[in-house]
Amino acid sequence: MKANLVGFASGVLFGAGLALAQMTDPNKVHNFLDIAGTWDPSLALVMGTAVMVAFVGFRLVLRRPTPRFGSKFELPRKETIDFRLIGGAAVFGAGWGIGGYCPGPAIAVLSLGGADPWVFVAAMLAGAVVGRFGDRPVAALET
Q1: pLDDT tens digits, residue range 70-111?
Q2: Is 6 helix (H, G, I), strand (E, B) or coil?
């Protein structure tokens, strides 16, 4: 129960931070990505700050033998760069550039209404399904 409350509080804090940084505004994101036009570099400060906080936070947390609310740390084991990683990053970037949302802000803005974030989240979930099952052989083609 305590872990769920901490997770919920963390999610609320994260969503509030996204809203405060205006990452939930697709126009702000589009202007950040438009370096040849109406470029707005303010989100670079947001991302740079997030990277610094994560850098310090990981070093502090990983000094512990186990997480506070779990039995072990769940860290990625893969260290190679392959086609799936590059392809996923390209699709992520294209979706961010077209829609003006990335997953966190899209979910945070669902409660505000409007169809755009719902369409984006539906497409994001469809992409997750394709990414999860898309590389498996199709049974009908194996024969």
Answers
A1: 888 888 888 889 888 888 889 888 888 888 888 888 888 888
A2: helix
> Residue 75 has which token pair?
């860290």
For the chain, the first-to-last Cα distance in angstroms comes to 49
Please provide residue 71's backbone torsions phi and psi, each rounded to the nearest 5 degrees: -90, -25
What CA–CA distance (Å, rounded) separates 69 from 67?
6
How many CB atoms sit inside 10 A of residue 117's CB?
23
- pLDDT-based confidence at residue 137 (cuts at 50, 70, 90): low
Other CB atoms within 10 A of residue 102 CB: 17
Cβ atoms < 10 Å from Cβ of 106 = 25
Mean pLDDT of 19-44: 88
Backbone angles phi, psi at 47, to 5 degrees: -65, -40
